[in-house]
Design goal:
The protein has one helix at 2-14, and strands at residues 22-27, 38-49, 53-64, 75-86, 89-98, 101-109, 123-128, 134-139. By secondary structure, the chain is mostly beta strands. β5 (89-98) and β6 (101-109) form a beta hairpin. The longest helix has 13 residues, at 2-14.
Length: 143
């Protein structure tokens, strides 16, 4: 039993070689074009943390000049699974435990996609709450 625990900790610390880091702004609709006046979205950071391994960090944000408050709701998910889903795309799955239950996150990373089909975004994020409610967000991929 002790050997298995050590192996899992080691795997978590070193991460997965197919995981790619990056910072993205995500919005509720595909191909969203930020107006700059009052844009609300999620800032996504894919990173490697020294003792957590590969992580997904999310923060709600508002950009521009508007009278709107958005709770940042900073949250960090530990990645539990990295798998190829074909055509060079990768799926990252993670979880976060809070007092009200387990939150899950799934990211489809299309940065290395080789197929010519149309995808809704370079990054597609799906968050699932403990009660099963899903929220999908899409990366802003530039003009």
């Amino acid at each position: 039993m002790k050997l298995i625990v050590i192996f899992l900790v080691s795997f978590s610390v070193f991460g997965n070689e197919n995981f790619q880091t990056g910072v993205f702004e995500l919005y509720s609709t595909p191909k969203y074009q930020p107006a700059g006046s009052c844009d609300v979205g999620i800032r996504l950071v894919l990173d490697r943390a020294e003792y957590l391994g590969d992580i997904i960090a999310l923060t709600n944000f508002v950009d521009g000049y508007c009278d709107l408050y958005v709770d940042p709701n900073f949250r960090v998910f530990q990645i539990s699974k990295v798998e190829s889903i074909g055509c060079g795309s990768w799926n990252y799955s993670g979880y976060l435990f809070k007092a009200d239950g387990e939150y899950q996150v799934e990211i489809v990373d299309n940065r290395r996609r080789t197929c010519d089909d149309v995808v809704p975004g370079i990054i597609v994020l799906t968050e699932t709450t403990p009660n099963g409610e899903k929220k999908v967000s899409f990366s802003y991929d530039g003009p």
